[in-house]
Amino acid sequence: MTDRQLVDSVLAGHTCCYAELMSRYSAMVLAKAMGVVRCQDLAAEITQQTFVRAYTHLAGWQGSASIGPWLATMAVRLSLNALDEARRRRIDRIDSSLEPDEYRPEHEQQLQQLEQAIGNLPEPDRSIVRLHYYRRQTTADIARALHLTASNVLVRLHRIRQRLKKQLSTDENE
Description:
Blueprint: H1 3-11, H2 17-37, H3 40-56, H4 68-97, H5 105-119, H6 123-134, H7 139-146, H8 150-173
Helix pairs in contact: 1-2, 2-3, 2-4, 3-4, 5-8, 7-8
């Protein structure tokens, strides 16, 4: 059976056909995840997540030949999300390990300069910064709230960060 026939069978209620898709593509999905996260246990977990997510979104697959590229893309996205989450946990752990008496006056001054630089941004940019960094909203949520695309939010965040870095380095040199 082709992948399209298997998917159609699964969607028609023959869920046992999904096992065939899993056996065809589990090694490839595991390899994709492993290539990104470089951890066997995490890659195995991502492989499971990929097949669960694929199953729940199977009706959205628009392909006609191989479902492999769709699964590979899903595995890579989940892998990147896992890396991003791990990075955020490390940063949170570092932030929480700082004791209040470890803050130095120059650190407080840098924070004040950053707040002032953010305050000098045009309102749309200030809103994006507040939503992303203070309220920890996702780019998709920010895009919906501000009637932008998620890509546009990411580009604007990048440009805002570059502008703030430049302004802070200029203030530091003065």
